[in-house]
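Appendix B. Raw example, untouched.
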Amino acid sequence: MRLIAEITDKEILGKDGLSSAKPRYTARAIVKNGDLYAVICSEKFHPYSLPGGGVDEDEDIITALKREILEETGCTCGKITELGMIKENRAKADYTQCSYYYVVEADSVGAPKFTEEETNSGTTLQWHTLPEMIKLINELEPKTYQQQYLKARDVAALNEYIGMVTKMEKNCKWCNLSEAEKKYLLIQGNHWDVYLADKQDYIGRCILVLNRHCAALSKLDSKEWAELKALIEQLETAIANALGASMFNWSCLMNDFYKSESPNPHLHIHVRPRYNSPITINGKTYNDEEYAHHYDNHKQNKLTESEKETIYNLIKEALDG
């Protein structure tokens, strides 16, 4: 695993010196549940920190990680991504530690199972947005030598994670739409944006795009699911009223993302309206020749920009009305 940082008394106390003690190994994680992140709060040991703990002698790192995350957050681990390793050399305490950090997407969420010592020390689990978590950990004022190391360690891991997220978003088409590409925005929701698709192979085809970087439907939170349901109802009603669509094909494939050696998927959903009778746009008639059959992925309808604008305006008026 790649080394993120090596922290010594030079960084913490401004003093030289190194310990030669045998290192303790730990597994730690930035744990995500939708757009919320797990933070461990301990009144006695450390106000705010990332979940994780020691690797037992009979464990490998991943086994320890899954156990610690289940114990401290109640979550089972879904997707696990390596973040990096952080080494601590506490000369003053003659202690060394090597922490392996991961990014974990929660598969299921239950109740944490803290030890008796942790419970007695007031340890609790909190869930925060990324900005909230960053603020809590960055603004800590350590009161002890140990707390200084704990903060430095988690800050280094968070900075690495922020860099990872920034890189993913920078290289993502949907996270970096230009103003010109937003021309055909139909709905701007709290969690989803809806656009008229560039490719109008099926008249009124739209794309629903989640407004955070997320790779799979299974990672949506309850609010995102609720808004998606409402948008599906709203969009189907509007397109049926505006264009006469009689049914709809919904798809969430994202195959193109995985043609890359380093897939960076961003959740989006296509809706293709289907028509059991011809539809006329600006005097030109179009037929849904595959009606009641699977849509044709290679179908071509060469619409003019004027025709596309007409379709957009018809749907927009139906939505706004």
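End of appendix B.
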